[in-house]
Amino acid sequence: xxxxxAVARDVCQRRFGAAGPRDFADRAKRLxxxxxxxxxAEAARQAVGGPGDPGEAGDAPTDDADGYPD
Length: 70
Hints:
Number of helices: 3
Strand content: under 5%
Number of strands: 0
Structural class: mainly alpha
Protein backbone atom coordinates (compact mmCIF):
# COMPACT_ATOMS: atom_id res chain seq x y z
CA UNK A 1 0.00 0.00 0.00
CA UNK A 2 0.85 3.65 -0.10
CA UNK A 3 2.85 5.07 2.81
CA UNK A 4 0.89 8.29 3.32
CA UNK A 5 3.23 9.42 6.10
CA ALA A 6 6.19 9.33 3.70
CA VAL A 7 4.20 11.14 1.01
CA ALA A 8 3.10 13.79 3.53
CA ARG A 9 6.70 14.22 4.72
CA ASP A 10 7.85 14.71 1.11
CA VAL A 11 5.10 17.27 0.39
CA CYS A 12 5.88 19.15 3.61
CA GLN A 13 9.62 19.23 2.87
CA ARG A 14 9.03 20.53 -0.65
CA ARG A 15 6.86 23.35 0.74
CA PHE A 16 8.75 24.25 3.94
CA GLY A 17 12.26 22.85 3.45
CA ALA A 18 14.09 20.05 5.21
CA ALA A 19 14.37 21.78 8.60
CA GLY A 20 11.76 20.82 11.16
CA PRO A 21 9.24 23.25 12.63
CA ARG A 22 10.74 26.07 14.71
CA ASP A 23 7.92 26.35 17.24
CA PHE A 24 4.34 25.32 17.95
CA ALA A 25 2.90 27.92 15.56
CA ASP A 26 5.10 26.68 12.71
CA ARG A 27 4.14 23.09 13.49
CA ALA A 28 0.44 24.00 13.47
CA LYS A 29 0.86 25.76 10.11
CA ARG A 30 2.44 22.64 8.60
CA LEU A 31 -0.26 20.39 10.04
CA UNK A 32 -3.02 22.61 8.59
CA UNK A 33 -1.22 22.64 5.23
CA UNK A 34 -1.14 18.83 5.07
CA UNK A 35 -4.68 18.31 6.37
CA UNK A 36 -6.04 20.82 3.86
CA UNK A 37 -4.47 18.66 1.17
CA UNK A 38 -6.30 15.57 2.38
CA UNK A 39 -3.78 13.84 4.63
CA UNK A 40 -5.14 12.32 7.83
CA ALA A 41 -4.31 13.99 11.13
CA GLU A 42 -2.18 10.99 12.12
CA ALA A 43 -0.16 10.98 8.86
CA ALA A 44 0.34 14.75 9.15
CA ARG A 45 1.49 14.52 12.80
CA GLN A 46 3.96 11.76 11.99
CA ALA A 47 5.27 13.62 8.95
CA VAL A 48 5.73 16.99 10.66
CA GLY A 49 7.16 15.96 14.05
CA GLY A 50 9.02 18.80 15.79
CA PRO A 51 8.12 20.80 18.90
CA GLY A 52 5.26 19.25 20.80
CA ASP A 53 5.70 15.87 19.15
CA PRO A 54 5.37 13.25 21.90
CA GLY A 55 8.02 11.20 20.11
CA GLU A 56 10.73 13.76 20.79
CA ALA A 57 12.54 13.64 24.11
CA GLY A 58 12.53 16.79 26.16
CA ASP A 59 9.38 18.32 24.70
CA ALA A 60 6.78 16.75 26.99
CA PRO A 61 6.46 18.26 30.45
CA THR A 62 7.43 15.95 33.26
CA ASP A 63 5.23 15.47 36.29
CA ASP A 64 6.68 15.21 39.74
CA ALA A 65 4.95 13.80 42.81
CA ASP A 66 2.45 16.67 43.07
CA GLY A 67 1.04 15.98 39.56
CA TYR A 68 1.88 19.40 38.13
CA PRO A 69 4.31 19.96 35.25
CA ASP A 70 7.76 21.08 36.35
